[in-house]
Amino acid sequence: MDDILKLFASRRLKPNHIVSQWYMYLDDIQKQVEFLYNSLECEKLMFLGDGDGISIMLALTLAKNKSKKLKQIFVFDIDERELNLYKNLAKENGVSEYVDFQTIRYNIFDKVPSKFLNKFDAFYINPPYSSTTQPKGLGFLLWLERCIEMTKRDAKGYIVYPTKDNDQIAINEIGKTIFQYLEENHFNVLQNPAPISHRYEETDCISENLIVEKTKNTSAHYKGKKIPFEIANSLYHNKLLPHYILDDGTTYGSPVDF
Ligand SMILES: C[S@@+](CC[C@H](N)C(=O)[O-])C[C@H]1O[C@@H](n2cnc3c(N)ncnc32)[C@H](O)[C@@H]1O
User: Does residue 249 lie within any of the structural domains?
Assistant: First the structure.
């Protein structure tokens, strides 16, 4: 294990399943970060949800290689525990000399703050897989909606999506939902699959990378609006959606209601 991965492994949190956190295995995180480090061609990259820590691992890799090839990495997440961990790791390791790394507490059901509209030229998502929602794969649609708002025209998207699991019928339906949405919303598919797959702790699911690009006709349906609450309930298996997870020093953090 290299030094960066060792450091991350020693500080890693416990996944909070209330907000669909199922963490990627460490060796697959390493492969994923190497893949992004070598293939990313953008200045301003956003992560919408990142329990796997790919964002901070990428920032630490830029610092280790003294690379200034990315200007900004912004991480948006509902879970303050993750954001605080990444912020601390960035500070302790002098990341700011190489990349502007910022963490923002954000729940995708809220409006996007105006300062983040059309800001980024690439996004990375690994949303809730939503195998029980209607349609299956709803998490991808909502996450993509917000990424459309936050990125510039022609932005690239790195989407991690499930390709194998015990319920292969559900997985195939999720794939269908994603590709239909991408087509209807005028994304170009640039690479599918990109040559990495990922495994996760506590589940048999396997995911792969899909790289897409916005076009001039790509537009969001919830622009400047909240996403309706009925959708929120369905996304989290009809359990109450927390507004955010408070980093209060407990193992899983405390859910804070809307
Ligand atoms: C949904 S999980 C997907 C599985 C992934 N392997 C992981 O654990 O990160 C991705 C991230 O999205 C965050 N997340 C879940 N619901 C969210 C919401 N409503 N708004 C913003 N982030 C959310 C989780 O905290 C987690 O960090």
Answer: no
Q: pTM for this structure?
A: 0.97
d(CA 248, CA 120): 31
* Mean pLDDT score, 145-165: 97
If one counts the domains in the chain, the total is 1
SS3 123: strand
Q: Dump strand ranges (E) for the chain.
A: 44-48, 72-77, 100-105, 120-125, 151-164, 188-199, 206-213, 244-246, 254-256
CA–centroid distance, residue 97 to ligand 1 (Å): 28
CATH number at residue 211: 3.40.50.150
Range of the domain at 100: 3-239
- For ligand 1, whether the C-beta of 137 sits within 6 Å is no
- Tell whether ligand 1 has an atom less than 6 A from the beta carbon of residue 80: no
